[in-house]
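Lecture notes, unit on protein representations.

Consider one protein chain, 510 amino acids long.
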Amino acid sequence: MRTTRRGVLRSIGAAGLALPFLRTAAHAARVPGTITFGLSSYPPNTQPWANTGTASLTVKVQMYRGLLSYDAAGALRPELAESWQSDGGTGWTFKLRDAVFHNGKPVTSADVKWTLEQVAGPKSTAYLRTDMQEIERIETPDARTVRLVTKVPNAVLPEKLASPHMPITAAGSTDNGGAPVGAGPYVMTASERGVSIDFKAFDKYYKPGLPKVKALRFVAYADENLRVAALQAGDVDIIEYVPWQAMDAIEADKRLAMQNVDGPFMALSFNGGQGPFKDKLVRQAVAFAIKRDEIVKAAFFGRGNPLEGIPIAPSSPFFDKARSQFWKYDPARAKALLAQAGHPNGFACTLLSTAQYGMHKSTAEVVQQNLAAIGVQVTLNLPDWATRVALGNRGQYEFVVQGTTADNNDPDGLASVLDGSLPPNNARSVNLPTPDIHALFAKGRAEFDQAKRKAIYAELETRALDECPLVGLAWRAQGYAMAKDLQGFHNLPSAMTFFSGLTLEDSYFA
């Protein structure tokens, strides 16, 4: 008998148990020609230019593709653009390949121009709106050529255009409330709100021989134990967000494989508009009050490392060990900073997190306990993930637990979490302007010389450690687990792990 998601739910409910894992003697029968993917939540939406979490991203990269993307090693690769080059500091030229959208129309320079204008437009809520507003002029000399002229030199524009949050859609497709039309490897065929989404392979996809599997099915398992149980039962072929308490069991299961990378991190962001966190001394006090090794143990079962500074990975050429250990646990210093800020007896506040992901809840609980030791009384607000995202995007919190990563592996990718001068988003502090940090990001972005960029980002890191627009807590191992015979899927390195859904087009059963 095939163990189903609803069957597992019924069994657990009837027995009154919360089983951490479910083992079966053999892998259950598959739907022929279909990869079934266990998501950590049902996507709040699949809007092409929004950032609403990893589950949404994993789904939408099947529907859309941008000018560029990343290969399995994290290097830039061509997508709708078959080539690109810088042509004078402020100019970048892209040559488009022969590709068509899901509506059968060819991908042209006019579509690229229209897309970039929508993202940068005055009413846009796109995640990369500010970045695309740095483009001063879009030239389309022919249907297969796009030249972007930026306001100032921009060394990282290709990285921005490779983001899965910057796909190209058919011109006019969203006019009058229409649905965006992409050129990705799969086409959505059905969805059941809160439960599942189905795709079939796009028969005119521009990469010969891809995708390798004719259908994808995404099934949402908000409960992380059920997500693991579904994989072990053979209900799904692959899952994201492998819960850290399950990693040992998955590694021991000869039918399964797991791919972990370091790169995502847990952190705190703040509402600087009012209340105690408006004062950087209070934010600094919080930074020194956290026992980060407790978060690594409680939230990640030891599969991670304390993050005592700004999240620049140890493998990065921009990494500095001394700065990375700046926020070592120092409760005496934390109390002194509180007193200096006018709160010698502490204060009461509310921390936004979510109970849907155990790592978020456990991180919030450790922060709550640690801050109580310096007199800060924290009440936890733990809604479901969709509500947590909505509250975060609206800035309706005092401070908030973040589980995120940089936009890419270049230091400029940290602008999304550090630059308070950018428009509000779910992954960054609100009402907390950082003009000096903003200026340093702009300076680094405009510099093509690597040695000079390194000096710029060292200064930026020092500034961010003082201003605390984000307080790092812990690096975490981010895992995908899958049936051992599922080949071709890759967990992309470091900050790009959440982009790994890009490799589903290469995935197949051996």
